[in-house]
Give the backbone structure.
Amino acid sequence: MRKERKIINTNIRLNLCDEQDRKAWEYLQTMDRQKYKSYTKAVVAALNDYFAREYQNEEDPYLETREKEDAFLERVEKAIRDGVKESVPMAMAKNLFEMLAPFVKESAGEKALPDLIKEKASEQHTEAMTDWEQEADLDAALDFADSF
């Protein structure tokens, strides 16, 4: 059984001196031939996408802004997740060290204890500075997000 076809033939004229027309022609020349078998398929996909988006924006003028905000928030959430992933092992190591400190004190003797305490205080100071810097970065990001 033969598939019914209703074909309309139309011409597209592109003026290569016009920037928009020239870009369209370049896209048609460099399109993926595996994905788009003909100019017709590419033009149909482009027109449908363009006008669907255009009509959607007419119905909801804030759609594009929300999409940008959602993308920004996704990047912020990813940065926070990555930061938590990096800081959790250090926090766990710190807690483990604090739990093991009494046993280390017994086995290391009293002379090694002051050195151990100094080293731990130095690490905490460095970690506190890093936390402060991260908190400042997060505050700046949130202030930026609040400005919208």
Observations:
- Helices lie at 19-30, 39-59, 63-108, 112-146.
- Residues 63-146 form one domain.
- The chain has a mean pLDDT of 78.
